[in-house]
Amino acid sequence: MAKKAKTVFVCQECGYESPKWMGQCICGAWNSFVEEKVVELDENDHRRRGSSVKAAMTGGNGAAPSRAVRPTRLTEVKTADYRRMDTGIKELNRVLGGGLVKGSLTLISGEPGIGKSTIIIQAASWIAQKYGTVLYVSGEESEEQIKMRAERVCHGNTENLFLLAETNMEVVMEVVEQLKPVFLIVDSIQTMYSEQLDAAPGSVSQVRICGNLLMRLGKSGDLPIFIVAHVTKSGELAGPKIVEHLVDCVLNFTGERNQELRILRSYKNRFGTTSEIGAFEMSEAGLLGIENLSGSFLEGLEDGTEGAMATAVYEGTRPLLLEVQALTAPTNIGFARRTSLGIDHSRLNMILAVLERKAGISFINQDVYVNIVGGLRPEGTSTDLAVALAIYSVYRGIPGNSRMLAVGEIGLTGDLRPIQNGEKIVKEAARMGFRSVILPRRNQEKLKDAVRDIRLIGVTNIKEAIGLLNGGKER
Question: Which domain holds residue 168?
Answer without folding.
Answer: 84-291
